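@here heads up, posting the sequence + SMILES for the pyridoxal-5'-phosphate run so it's all in one place. Ping me if the SMILES looks off, I pulled it from an old spreadsheet.
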Amino acid sequence: MLQNYTSNAAAIADADKYLYGNHARMPIVMDKGEGCYVWDLDGRKFLDFVGGIAVNGLGHCHPAIVKAMEERAHTMLHCSNYYYNAPAIQVCKMIVENSCFEKVLFANSGAEANEGQIKLARKYAVDHGHPERYVVISMLKSFHGRTLATATATGQEIVHNPKWYSPLPEGFRYAEFNNLESVKEQLDDKVCAILTEPVQGEGGVRPATQEFLQGLRDICDERGILLMFDEVQVGSGRTGKLFAHQNYGVEPDTCSMAKALGSGVPIGAVCARGDAAKTLIPGTHGSTFAGGPLACGLAAATLDAMLNEGVMEHAAKTGEYFRAALRKVAEKHPGAVKEVRGMGMINGVELTDNEIGPKVVDKCFEQDVLINCTAGNVLRFIPPLIASEAECDIVAAAVDKALTELGK
Ligand SMILES: *Cc1c(COP(=O)(O)O)cnc(C)c1O
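bot reply: prediction finished. Complex structure tokens:
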């Protein structure tokens, strides 16, 4: 019989029994959400500045998403990639018309989209007469996913721990983010692509410098290799533009998207231009579910709201307001905060003390505010893009109070 859970405690008791323990979770069971707020099974309400890790860009139960969901429920959820479906075409058209890209290929997640970029880069090299090129240079502290190839591309040993997962796929090298010399040290005739996030998310909310991204573009142009961006976290409107790289004016050859693109349904995408938009031919890459009408119907509604209802402009403006509010908090706790940084609605507060990040998260939780801590000591704020200035004030005040209570 279908179990009906009505309290956190009852559900978590069963979770402890049946649910695989591969995630460390806060002790609440999410029940429902509206806008920037969520409720747990006990009926407790939280202000949600985690936003499903940058997935709920339009917040919870946005009317445009509810409508798209209803429409899909009454028409079609899935069809095979043997056929076209209209929502998928709408999504590609919107992305292409608002970017430097010419073609879009679908996947089901960020990792899968990045896996697609890696395959694309290797075949691109072969197609262009360089079968000896297969190495992808990615950055330290990056995050690209948890499949074997994308975990290996991730420049963090904790993700691709060779002790556990060997043999790792060959052909990955790491360089320091925002350090062109370090990238140049890794270059040789085997390199087929450079992969980076324009703003590192998991690595601690670190925006690339203009000089770094432009320098990577120049290197790739000189060598005829691909510049690939991972915009799984910072694309889809998060930085106030459809793509974070549009804030820099540096155009990659390919770019991945995922998190906020489907407003909660799994979807990923690889966007490509030039010859990179022609590399993956039938039989090279794809997936049963990728680009299906359910995910694409929601992605189309998401992009429509982002592009045509001022959501991205709002994110740019509110993000600036929020950083100013966080800087005021930082001034009140001079020894505690190393830096406030971010772009649009991805923001971070780097703490000086490596121990207190998780404690601040817990103290905010006590105040019914959800945030998270990444890279050990960086408080990360990735709320719905529709969050208001008043909601930003509540979160800044919660962080202020948390630091005070921790004696910082
Ligand atoms: C989350 C994330 C991924 C992985 O996406 P999944 O959908 O979890 O596979 C890849 N790259 C970046 C930058 C991410 O933030």
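MO: The two ends are 51 Å apart (CA to CA).
MO: One more: The chain has two domains: 8-62+310-405, 76-308.
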